[in-house]
From TrEMBL:
Pfam families: DUF1697. This is DUF1697 domain-containing protein. PANTHER family: BLL4334 PROTEIN (PTHR36439), DUF1697 DOMAIN-CONTAINING PROTEIN (PTHR36439:SF1). It comes from Pelagibacterium lentulum. InterPro entries: DUF1697.
């Protein structure tokens, strides 16, 4: 059994993309995932499954699409991979709530940094299947656009650390 962490794209507390975490836990249990736990109402779920990452992704996306009536994107990492994302943070001295990892299904394009627009004081670094961004003045002030991030989903370092901790249990 592998501990997996699934990150749902475009899940909000209210409005478009609303998915109560109780429903997400029930959906995961219904499709055979075990020891299911969610973290904050933004589509973070930790569970165990004998399935590989790709099978987990497809199974969860299919069930969420049926639930929502429209395609739902999910990015999946093992607990060990998420721990490595945390360890690889290229901005360890920055406030963890001002650093995000944008999770992607594959490696970021080599021109990701050069293609970014409206950059002010933000710092960008590439990971294996992530784009790290340090928002110096905070995300709320930023106008940064990263085209490669369009199909990804971001989590700040505090959230990543909590998910790593949950995956160890």
């Amino acid at each position: 059994m592998t501990r997996h962490i699934a990150l749902l794209r475009a899940v909000n507390v209210g409005g478009t993309g609303k998915l109560p975490m109780e429903e997400l836990r029930a959906i995961c249990a219904e499709i055979g995932f075990e020891d299911v736990k969610t973290y904050i109402a933004s589509g973070n779920v930790v569970f165990s499954s004998p399935l590989d990452q790709e099978a987990v992704k497809h199974k969860l996306e299919a069930r969420l699409t049926a639930y929502a009536g429209k395609p739902q994107a999910v990015l999946v990492r093992s607990g060990a991979e998420m721990a490595q994302v945390l360890a690889d943070n290229p901005f360890p001295e920055a406030a963890p709530n001002r650093v995000v990892a944008i999770f992607l299904d594959g490696p970021p394009p080599v021109d990701t940094i050069e293609a970014a627009t409206h950059r002010k004081d933000e710092e960008i670094a590439l990971g294996k299947r992530e784009i790290y961004v340090h928002y110096g003045e905070g995300m709320g002030q930023s106008k940064l656009k990263i085209p490669a991030a369009g199909k990804g989903t971001a989590r700040n370092i505090n959230t990543i650390a909590k998910l790593v901790e949950m995956a160890r249990l």
